[in-house]
Amino acid sequence: MDERAALRLLSDELAAVGDDAAVVDGLVVTTDMLHERTDFPAGTTRYTAGWRAIGASLSDVAAMGAEATAAVAAYAAPRFDRDELLEFIRGAADVCERVGTEYVGGDLDGHEEFTVTTTAIGRTDDPVRRRGATAGDVVCVTGTLGRSAAALEYFERATTSDTADDRLVERANDLFRFAPRIPAGQVLASRATAMMDSSDGLARSLHQLAEASDCGFAIESDRIPIDDSVREVAATDDEALELATTFGEDFELVATLPETALSAVREAADVPVSVIGSVLEPDASITMDGEPLADQGYTH
Amino acid sequence: MDERAALRLLSDELAAVGDDAAVVDGLVVTTDMLHERTDFPAGTTRYTAGWRAIGASLSDVAAMGAEATAAVAAYAAPRFDRDELLEFIRGAADVCERVGTEYVGGDLDGHEEFTVTTTAIGRTDDPVRRRGATAGDVVCVTGTLGRSAAALEYFERATTSDTADDRLVERANDLFRFAPRIPAGQVLASRATAMMDSSDGLARSLHQLAEASDCGFAIESDRIPIDDSVREVAATDDEALELATTFGEDFELVATLPETALSAVREAADVPVSVIGSVLEPDASITMDGEPLADQGYTH
């Protein structure tokens, strides 16, 4: 059984599972485990790791349309280096501050691989689910896609270059930190029919929304907001589109809403909200420029 | 820097840290990471692992005197075996049900060592801290101490015996599951001046309470409620006392309260509440039967 099969099993077993966060009693709760080998490429500072790990959980809170209440982390490492730990805490605290919430600490543990589990909690009386997208709605994404893909390329270039290039590492770390879309999520929540974050990549997110909402999507590639950094690292426009669509780990919001709601949402949101296509009837498939869009992406 | 030093650093850095759980906005939040090698001895079923991992976090909620709102787990393993995963979820769900809360799922992740991070959330308007113990108060513990020490001995005997003894393994698993003291914690909360759980062992818990409350303790060994299972595995009474006092991982509550509150607390609590000694003035030390009680126990 692979992780996706196990996750399906979990959602059969537990009614609350299957959205970006569990909802209980007016609270949303989400937890994520990250490992050095798979989630923090060589060159990732502990400050960036703290920011990104906590940010990933806050992104799930944003995807429910909730305000953030608190975040914690369990931090495991082979040894506890004072500066590394302080940097991690500062990154964690800074991303919390960015979205108006509080990092309240956690657990420390000895472990051979640097491993972090973050948990974020939010509040909402009316969570936005993955189900609810309705034919005729527009499909939107916040911000731009592909920053993490570009970051990874910069980390890679920095480690393989003969001379250590601090600017590459710095640029990669900058791209690797992101603003969880808590404020935009709350704005979208008032009108969105369905919402999730793009952590598994846009393509996979669309497939997950389609499965939960029982709908199809018609996406137009030239409306996808590709981050400038992706164009810096991609050899061709096709490669840039591919990275922005399937790489994932971008933590933007993908939402569906009635077209009539669009201008109000755009006016209130603190980031650009791009329309990338429309919601189709239940028996329709998921296409980009009329071609089937594969369920391809990053499975965490 | 060892874990205790790092934890001290964390509590300097973050005002909210330093109790069993962080308190934010009427919520208490606590997170714990557990590993197969250090926390789940050979023979521990996944059902017991799920129960115990979630139970450990619920115990921290209990130690704050809060009601439990929800719990989640991030589950990492080299592979996802359907039965193992279901058993884990059932154990997690059952311990939540035992204390009237809900297991709402979590995250799955590939990792070479079976590793679980649990987070529990509770609510209280008036959390009980580790600071607040006052000279003249009595020191109490809920339930009995030493069950985990006995469990470990049974796990050990089962793996070293020539013939696999299922009854030993079953007994060990029984002892390894525990009822988080959520109801007793809420009863104690109304009158306790200070409280924490005994997960690091009674001796270390007393040192931590003393440090936070600036007090001493006079403990009487013959009043310590030693679990019957400890007497089964210990060769002598001294060994039984040692295991009950320093082994830890028992997840009982250690609380201080005015003697006048005792009968009301005992009447309302669903478990025995044993008086084991009294709180002394700030300049007094921590003694058992008049001898210094070492700060010895299990550091997680």
If you had to describe this structure to a student in words, what would you say it looks like?
- Chains A, B: It comes from Natrinema halophilum.
- The structure is a homodimer of 300-residue chains.
- Chain A has eleven helices and twelve strands.
- Chain A is α+β, with helices and mostly antiparallel strands and 300 residues long.
- The first copy, chain A, folds into two domains: 3-123, 60s Ribosomal Protein L30, Chain: A; 138-292, Alpha-Beta Complex (Phosphoribosyl-aminoimidazole Synthetase, Chain A, domain 2), CATH 3.90.650.10.
- In chain A, the strands form two sheets. In chain A, strands 7-9-6-10-8-11-12 form a seven-stranded mixed sheet, sandwiched between helices.
- The longest helix of chain A is centred in the N-terminal third of the chain and has 18 residues, at 46-63.
- Chain A starts with a helix and ends in an 8-residue tail after the last strand.
- The relative contact order of chain A is 0.17.
- The model of chain A has no long low-confidence stretch (mean pLDDT 92).
- Chains A and B meet through helix 1, strand 1, strand 2, strand 3 and helix 4 of A and helix 1, strand 1, strand 2, strand 3 and helix 4 of B.
